[in-house]
Amino acid sequence: MSASWPARIAGIVLMTALVWGMVVLSALPYRLPAADAGLLRLSWRAPARGEESCRTRTQEELDALQPHMQTPEVCERAVLGYDVSVEIDGTVEWSGRLEGRGARGDRPIAFLHEVALSPGRHEVTVSVTATAEGGTPPPPTSLEVPLTVEPARVYLVTVDPDSGRLRLAASENGA
Amino acid sequence: MLKRLIGRLDAFFNRLYGSKYNPLYQSGTLIVVALALLLLTGIYLLIFYRIGRPYESVLGMNEQVWAGRWIRAMHRYASDAAIVLAIVHALRMFIQSRLDGPRAKAWWSGVLLFFTFLVCGWTGYVMVWDAQAHALAVAGARLLDVLPVFSQSIIRTFAGDRPIPGAFFFLNYFAHIALPIGVGLVLWIHLARIARPVVFPPRGLLWGTVAALTVFSVVTPIAMGVEADPLRIPDPIALDVFYNFWLPWAMDAPPLVVWAVGIAVGGAFLLLPWLPGRPKTLPGPSYVKQRHCTGCEQCSVDCPYDAIRMVPRVGDGKSALVGLVDPALCVSCGICAGSCAPMLVGPPGRTGRDQLAAVKRFIQEQPPDPATVVLLACSHGSGGVTEFERWSDAVVYAADCAGSIHTSLIEYLVRSGFGGVMVVSCPPRDCWNREGPIWLEQRMFHDREAELQARVDRDRVRLVFAGPGERAIVARALEEFRHDIEAGRSAEGESSIDLKEHCDTTVVSAAEGGS
Fold first, then answer.
1. Distance between A174 CA and the closest CA of chain B, angstroms
2. d(Cα B362, Cα B408) in Å, to the nearest integer?
3. Which of A116, B287, B347, B414 is the most exposed place for a label (fewest CB within 10 A)?
4. How many CB atoms lie within 10 A of CB A158?
5. ipTM score of the complex?
6. Nearest Cα to Cα of residue A140 among A9, A16, A48
7. Which chain B residues touch A168 with a CB distance below 8 Å?
8. Secondary structure, 3-state, A40-70
């Protein structure tokens, strides 16, 4: 069955409308929900710090071992993590312990956490403290900064690779 | 209800475009046109793409490369069209129940193709490295991070505390090129099952589609989004609904939930032919009575699914070769029943001689009358007239598929004294068994084996194409047919219809005796 000319014209109009609809739906404006607020992003990658304590084995200990295992010195290694807490206007929004990755826990610490912030002025404090188990001080230091948050902006707290300190970064015209 | 809806849509589109150019019938071939356009435009765009400067190079395509913005738009719209057409194509196959048995291979390969399109689209959008690309990359990284595969968090790549490594863009670029190769492979699996696959639509529709996409590419080229900035939440982004429909949900939902839903939905689509509620068994596959096979090869030639091959005969017989049906490929369409002159090929109960036996019983119930027309109608289409025993003063005789009708059936009905036989078939591009209407038309009017014998009065035979929603076409054709019959000579029934002159003696005696 072939179509009449009026039907063909109607067909062309319909097809034009359908393709137009497809074109519109191929670039539909969509507002990300997070665009209404600002975002505080904590992200860094830093080497895990280990502590190693070595001692010399006594002769009795050495005698108790197989000949091929009689190394004179024995070392115990502990990888140290650290506690991080994020306070916004004096309220703790997040806290947790960061530890090295991998089976031995000696791989670099990789951290990413995001906190939504309403637009306006906020006091942001990121505290980095040694774990209760003690050990050497953690590599990044704490950060305390006032922040004027604008919608749709991301405020990045990261470790400065040169100084090893926490710093705040943002896109142009940011914080 | 869905079948009725699709029947009406088909009828509407047939009125606008004619059945030959109906884009709903041609959804599969139009996908190939879209893929061809994607390939051509993609090659052009790749020449100008730079992995080290993704956004700048795409911006350069838009602003400096000859016809770059139009080619980009064509690439985008062709990819969207491929998704839309794939959905239409899959819906048709599902609603028409064309996914069971040996057809399941085409179904699962089609579902794989669809998901490959989506992943390929994801990589394509990320290549641009605008705001939408960043959102896609972050959403994808969230999903990948929950897999116990990667040693480091991927999402941190896009946190903004360090530049995005070039390896990411290289991998993405590589995937965007490699995936279409996978599409080609799966497409081959999708089509390998069938004989004589129709790859391209009729020329008018092909060039019409290209023209439409070209016009829209020129009139509404793709605008560049803002460059991806990890430290900015873009507001708003231009979301491609066809590819990135999942993004708004996946950005907030827990990644494991997204995976679970994705796997459940994808798995359900993939395994649809085997899910509860689907037919567990199809009608039995065709068989060939090899003792009577003349080795003419017509059934093997006509089979739309390459399910019949000719093999050397074991023992003595009329020919060196005989037909052999592969049950794993046979969908029981019965097309072979119409192709066998000796009437001994077809699914159980539907061979030519089974059809003749059935029509004899039919004639006992419906005594021939020169004033009555028989509607020999395909039960898949024909405006749904097969629901009735009589329709518009015509006697209805339903066939499983018009392509399976043996022409002896038509001859028998005409010569028994009915006023005429109007065969109603689905439109050629909408045959549930692919090539039924084409072979039927050639058997009736162009001497294709097994042809309608010359002794049959052609004035009392008519072939009409009508889909399930086109009852009006059947009514109009019936009226015209009646008018033509009245204008011609009156029908005369034969008291003893002898088909022996032209048919194999053994076979006819079997047919006369029923089966």
1. 9
2. 15
3. A116
4. 22
5. 0.86
6. A48
7. none
8. EEEEEEECCEEEEEEEECCHHHHHHCCHHHC
